[in-house]
Specification:
Rossmann fold, single chain, alpha/beta, 2 domains, 32% strand, 4 helices
Length: 167
Amino acid sequence: MNDMKFDSIAILHPHSPISLALIDNSEKISHVDYVEKAFTHIGNPVLVSPDAGAYKTTHEIAEKLNADLVPSNKVRVDGAPVISIQGDVNGKQCLIVDDLADGGRTFKFLAEALKQQGAAEVYLYVTHAQFNYGFDELKETIDHVYCTNSYKDINDDFVTQFKLEGL
């Protein structure tokens, strides 16, 4: 991309801050407004960071929205994710916040762990929504998905999609 000599490159919710450092003339476009729309629509849920990589940005959003934050972590054991939740979710609505979902299977396991700990409902917000395997597995544990159309348009009642300008 640097060889193309763009005047500027805008990146919505980059996966890593390293992206901005490696790409000349790049700037981050915040995803906070989209998370806030989901947060308000649900009715002030607890925010859940799905892993250590998402914690910093989810923490920043929680501060802006004056929301509770519950960190979680995953490790893989024999290829399967093992989830640990570090907070009280009993009887609460939870909103998992992350940058992208390829298939979404990890979110299914996280939602299952949240519900095992008493979460009343579990929602998912991802900025970049691929969902290459559809929604059948996710519907087993997640109550609703919120995302942008940064990757593709999705027409499914299970998903509320926020439209980006210019796409």
